[in-house]
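ugh finaly. both done.
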Amino acid sequence: MLLEAHNASSINALVLSPANVYGPGMRGNISTLISLISSGYIPLLPLLNTRISFKFGINDVSRAIKLAMESSYSGGKAYTLTDGETYIISDLEFEIYEALDKTRPRWRCPRIVLYLGLFLTGVFVKTLNIFGLDIPSIAGVSLRTYKNLITDNLFDNSEACKNLGFEPSETFYTLLPKCVSGYK
């Protein structure tokens, strides 16, 4: 609707899309993974070469919004914001163990066991929800989690950098110590 209003010359607008913002207090699959690794409840994931992009650290999101507000560029576009890095799921898992100062388990979960475990966890969570119960560390775990783990999820921020003059200053790895500090 915002871009439609821009195209009708009603307003000057552009859209920033920072869907997976990371940093202290974040939510989502990576937060759940950090929580589960911290608690020692899971074995190593299967070796996953799935590639993902993260949107931005919270400080970069704030800077991008400020640049967009100050920008004379009024292209009426939607920009995806990323930190400019591509991450491999298995590498992220390794770095989370390191940041938490946790010893990695010796046993690596086979893919089929991961699939069945996430399916059953999803059923368990839905059953608990029926009774008004919630376990925050597994609340978002389901087969969708499995799909997210095995499907590349890549985004490009080059247009936002070129048109808005933005260059990310943080990566997931530089913010990881802050992200895990509440779990130690």
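ok and the 2nd:
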Amino acid sequence: MKDLKLIGPFSQLLTMNGLLEKGPLDDSALEIIENGGVLIRNGIIQKVGKYDSLKNDIKLPKANLIHIDEKTVGLPGFIDPHTHICFAGSRANDYAKRISGKTYLEIAREGGGIWQTVQQTRQADPDQLYANTLNRAEKMLELGITTAEVKSGYGLNMEDELKMLKTIDRVHKNAQIDLVSTCLAAHMVPKDFNGNSRQYLDFILTELLPQVIQNGLSRRVDIFIEKEAFGEVDALYFLQKSKVLGFDLTIHGDQFTPMGSQVAIETGALSVDHLESSTDKEILALAKSDVISTVLPGASLGLGMPFAPARKLLNAGNALAIGSDWNPGSAPMGNLLLQASLLSTSEKLTNAETFAGITFRAAKALNFHDRGKLATGMLADIIAFPCTDYREILYHQGQLRPSIIVKKGNKID
């Protein structure tokens, strides 16, 4: 009894239980508990139900009650399955060029783009990089994100890729948000590398990844498949060998051209992310696989290009996750809820589909099975918004912020 906590009452609890892992979702399928409560032990949910019933059934000392005086809607903590928040510097100059008419690829060829951030991140000392990353992680938590993936990929050499991954690990250990690291050394071939793309990938496989494993810095790898980055043949080679080393796989695919989806399917990747250029062929192929389709509306907003075909992906039977892609170049905003709200109105996604994309379906893209729902055995990651109807949350398109955040059973002040 001593280690039990009860939090509530919530005007509504949106549990996300009982929803399909793939395909369309109707709001009528949402489990909504009026005047709900959550019973927690050691950071794990023991039971979800009516607050008064839980309180009466289990007589707890007052100190074990986290009483909510305001009217709120509670739901699982949001999960952002794709970010690049570990970086130094700014790319405001890139943005100015884009809104003046230049394309992302044109700017990259002129020396901007990823390579500019690589140079700035290499120059940053570890403490500066840590402070930058911690600040962004804390902002994400304030927005209701309790778990986020963070990629390397702005080091592109042994020293600085390890510096980035160690920074992500340091922030994870010191922040209240959970961070999941991904090694994206295969972001592009660095301009100062003396060799071709296959040789650079071999450097990652034979020199960098063994150090990542030895230091326990990541269990995931990513690769950017695009004409200006890595081709599908090289990517297939890299991912297959990474899988043998024991890494989970994810892919930047179908962003500017329909490249990457098929590689994700062939390699059994957890997810393929972006998909702005996916055609019916890629959409149908993904639907027949177990690959999560992760869309990144922040990149579309930052680049001024159409959103990924989220409605078509769902209708075909895909599992749709939604990430912010927070990065200094194409997606500098970083507000996941705002982006998901705008995606939902453009692509006609239901509340259920949108919330699924930033809770349990996003968890699946990160190979997590212990979060994203309010259910027995799940992490007690709970957020609550100051309203009485869950529909208000997307209606305000990111303006409504969580008033309560609980991470692993602890209320964050």
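summary for the 2nd one i guess: The radius of gyration is 21 Å.
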